[in-house]
Amino acid sequence: MHPSVVDVSVERDADGALLVRWELAGPPAAVEVAVGPTPEAIDHVPARVAPAGLHELRLPTAGPGPHYVSVAPRAAASVAPPAASASVAAGGGGAVAAGGGGAVVGGERRVPFEGASNFRDLGGYVGAGGRRVRWGRVFRADSLTHMTAADLAAYDRLGVRAVWDLRTDEEREREPDPFPSIPLSVMGRTEGGDGSAPPDVGDLLEESHGEQFLRVIYGRILANAAPVLGELLGGLAGPDATPAVFHCAGGKDRTGMAAALLLELLGVARPVVLDDYELTSRYRRRGRRSPSLDRLLEWMSPEAVAGVLGTPRWVMEEVLEVLDRDHGGIDAYLTGPAGLTAATLDQLRGDLLA
């Protein structure tokens, strides 16, 4: 049995260094680690050879912007033919090289911008048929308004072709994106047009009911925003549609629902979809007050607001159970109320899975 890399994770520590971890199947083997600014493994620069038995190492970073790391058993990396490297460069890894090993690409989940704290790459997750979601193709994010000059320079290197803005017209006017975007309002997050509390959730505005309030909002998005969500996901299909980013204000609720549906479509396991949802609580910066937050504080107690601002796993889990029970699962939902075709779903899977 030849050694093979089965998973790679990359995370930036407080000092700006990259902590790279990998899992190896088969006998112990040294691995070659290479780094680059894109998922294109063929362009990665060799950084370190880790001896057999080691499963993590720390690499200094080369500056701002995302970093991607390819890891391969040493024997395989030294004899891999160009065609195998090119296949790995498609964004997910897994191409088998001579000797039975193969390079697997991992990336920073959070793109380290200064002015957008919840800008994340949706790549790397294992999807349908064991294929991985391609790195660097689809990003989810919070508000992009406060991105710095250094952020914008790093953003340019992502090669983003489309920005989908899921906020309301009022939000876009108040905090416009720093570059052209496609307006696509996903309604149901907070209040109606007059700024009052939604009339059907008045009994949820008591202390400790913030999470239940969030559950109502997510259910409302699933029920009422299907055509808009279908337009977004359909817009990600095709050879020139990505790289793309979709975002709202906090990158949690509207963006979280869209991301969950996309990952469901790509066959990512439900627990992993929920893990991705919960990452917002880890990455999001809460230093800025927004009009939406001020209105919430008018309706409910600070304790209840804390529930609304969190990422309770049970809330997303219940909404996805409704997707299964009431809509027949993700394919039926997207080809039904969301208005997509089966061919578009196949196109998305073909485009975004390696």
Q: Your description of this structure?
A:
By secondary structure, the chain is an alpha+beta fold. It folds into two domains: about 5-105, Sandwich (Immunoglobulin-like), CATH 2.60.40; about 120-350, Protein tyrosine phosphatase superfamily (Protein-Tyrosine Phosphatase, Chain A, Alpha-Beta Complex), CATH 3.90.190.10. Helices cover about 35% and strands about 20% of the residues. It has helices at about 75-80, 80-90, 150-160, 170-175, 210-225, 225-235, 255-265, 270-285, 290-300, 300-310, 315-325, 330-335, 340-350, and strands at about 5-10, 20-25, 30-35, 45-50, 55-60, 70-75, 95, 100-105, 120, 140, 160-165, 180-185, 245. The chain has a five-stranded antiparallel β-sheet.
List the helices and strands and how they pair.
Blueprint: E1 4-12, E2 18-25, E3 31-36, E4 45-50, E5 56-59, E6 68-73, H1 74-79, H2 82-88, E7 95-96, E8 102-107, E9 120-121, E10 138-141, H3 149-158, E11 162-165, H4 169-174, E12 182-183, H5 210-224, H6 226-235, E13 244-247, H7 254-265, H8 270-283, H9 291-299, H10 302-309, H11 313-327, H12 330-335, H13 342-352
Parallel strand pairs: 10-13, 11-12, 11-13
Antiparallel strand pairs: 1-2, 2-5, 3-4, 3-6, 6-8, 7-8, 9-10
Helix pairs in contact: 5-10, 5-11, 7-8
